[in-house]
Amino acid sequence: MDELIIANRRFTSRLLIGTGKFSSSKVMAEAVEAAGAQIVTVALRRIDITNQNDDMLAAIDRSKYLLLPNTSGARTADEAVRLSRLARAATGINWVKLEVTPDPYYLLPDPVETLKAAEILVKEGFVVLPYINADPILSKKLQDVGTATVMPLASPIGSNQGLKTRAAIEIIIEQANVPVVVDAGLGLPSHAAEAMEMGADAVLVNTAIATAAEPAKMAHAFKLAVEAGRTAFLSGAAAESKKANASSPLTGFLRNE
Amino acid sequence: MTMTITAQHIDIKKILADRGLDGCGRDIWTKRLGDITPAEVEWALSRQPGYYVLDRLLILVSPAAENYLEQMAQLSHQLTLQRFGKTVRLYAPLYLSNFCVNDCVYCGFNKSHDFPRIRLTIEQAVAEADVIAKEGFKDLLLVSSEDRSFISVDYLCELAGKLRPKFSSLSVEIYQMNTEEYAKLFASGIEGVTLYQETYDRDTYSKYHPAGPKADYDYRLSAPESMAQAGMREIGIGALLGLDNWRLETLALAEHAHYLMKRYWQSRVSFSFPRLRPAKDVDRSQFNLLSDKNLVQMILALRLCFADAGLTISTREPAHLRDHLVKLGITRMSAGSKTNPGGYSGSTGSVEQFEIDDKRTPAQIAAMLKSQGLEPVWKDWDSAFSETSPIGGPAFTRA
């Protein structure tokens, strides 16, 4: 069975969903359902993590979905670490999507602070999924300190521009020892399919689904695209492996020697 | 000997003066605005929206662009939807004092107006905040006139300490402070400051601010920088609409925002649109009041130049207008506001700073947003962000 494994947890879905920008928690929950998602990320700044009745938290069935708190809004490693600790203390969840975005406009991740925070959090026992620019070296450094995934951006968050960082993400995938989750900027199901065809292990989508006229329908479209892209990748991988094992028609004659 | 001019020497004062946007180029800009043609507007609308260029903003705020408001609105709606999603943040103002040392001609709290003044003690302010918190608010704006002797920096810090457990976000709209004072506020958990230049035209500024600490245009202009240097996350700027030509004010305001965004890249700049409202003992006839159409054009033009800027509208504006503005680019609004100190708990019966227009309750505002397919966002911040003071940190020494 083709499973996504992050920190020893197994998932059959390769589509992660972000929960911002929806018109209501109800619409969000319907979209998550339609996406067939198993991992749902929530901005700690948007929820009252200590309150069981928080509107958004209440809409996410924790028995069905892994709730992945994120540190969106943090400008420094210190802030991200503090938020993560609070979230863990309040919920027992030790997974965190690490976001350190000091620029409030493009929300691009700070590589220096992200690496610093990742190192601290991993040491404290967190499962860390860092949001990063598509930087292969940073990717390796994060894996060296023990992050559970890397989450390179396809293009600036919310921009719907698709895979603008394709060349760098190809290198990240090629070199990765942990799952690569392409995060941010995927505006259409075809963008998600493209990322999966390249060999990304999963994708995370929010804006494209939340701001669609019919979010649940769009979530379903992304689900199909991710499955199609994954299947294509696996088919491609099989074909490539066959090619590598094939007899060599050009030098086959040498076998007789 | 020649002097080398470096980027450090260029401040907002010089930028506005060089561009003629502090009033010295009034005639040139007025003529340029009048000369804009429909073809230029169409060109501007064909460009990718969301990026600031002064010449494009000039076109978008021109009289010629008034015939293209629907197209501007469609673009603005799409852009806002993409960047902010189907959400509108809600906040409430808490007025602390209406004692004032300033003499602003347009303001109900003007020191020369004779009415019983009110100051809330910290205990009274907390009681007011409790009423606001019960209504569901997590985002609180503390407002006060220039009453330093009572609403001191220490008062605000102490109050912030008491309010932090009840609110996820605290900001102030208050008399101007210096960087050290803003840093104290930030350390106490206040992470945003709103302060309007009121008008960017020097002569108009002098006319409306004849006396008091606020009479100094240049000092006023330096305020947002001080906030950023103190580490403030949210910096609200604006012009008091009605004092001068709104088209020129918008250009200066945008230059100011652009300057702040480039220089203090870790603070988010947001725009407010305070339109002059009737106030006690204030004669309206002397002002250049904006029509709804003017206000809408200004909002749209700024959104089309600043894709990610927060755009705030208060309860100064009437309900029917606010209901439409949330689809045109507005991302944050107040609800159920009382602009008189003590107004929420109803204990004081004090004078308002200005008359509010949209008198609906917060629950009614939330219902209005939902009926438009928008989620009312009460909480979009967390007090956990504000544990440390960034003063001396690497991010704030570059200025």
Describe what this molecule looks like in 3D:
The complex is a heterodimer of chains A (257) and B (399). By secondary structure, chain A is α/β, with parallel strands linked by helices. Chain A has one domain (4-256): TIM Barrel. Helices cover 42% and strands 15% of the residues of chain A. Chain A has nine helices and ten strands. Chain A has helices at 25-35, 55-58, 77-91, 111-123, 136-145, 166-175, 189-198, 207-210, 215-245; strands at residues 4-6, 9-11, 15-18, 39-43, 66-70, 95-98, 127-132, 151-152, 181-183, 202-205. In chain A, the strands form three sheets. A five-stranded parallel β-sheet of chain A has the order 5-4-3-10-9. In chain A, strands 6-7-8 form a three-stranded parallel β-sheet. Chain A has a two-stranded antiparallel sheet with strand order 1-2. In chain A, β7 (127-132), α5 (136-145) and β8 form a beta-alpha-beta unit. Chain A is globular and about 75 Å long. The mean pLDDT of chain A is 89. By secondary structure, chain B is of the alpha/beta class. Chain B folds into two domains: 9-68, no CATH class; 69-383 and 391-396, Aldolase class I (TIM Barrel, Alpha-Beta Barrel). Helix content of chain B is 38%, strand content 11%. Chain B is built from 15 helices and nine strands. Chain B has an eight-stranded parallel beta barrel with strand order 1-2-3-4-5-6-7-8, surrounded by four helices. In chain B, α7 links the parallel β2 (139-144) and β3. Chain B is globular and about 60 Å long. Chain B starts with 11 loop residues before the first helix and ends in a 22-residue tail after the last strand. The interface between A and B is medium-sized, with 31 and 33 residues.
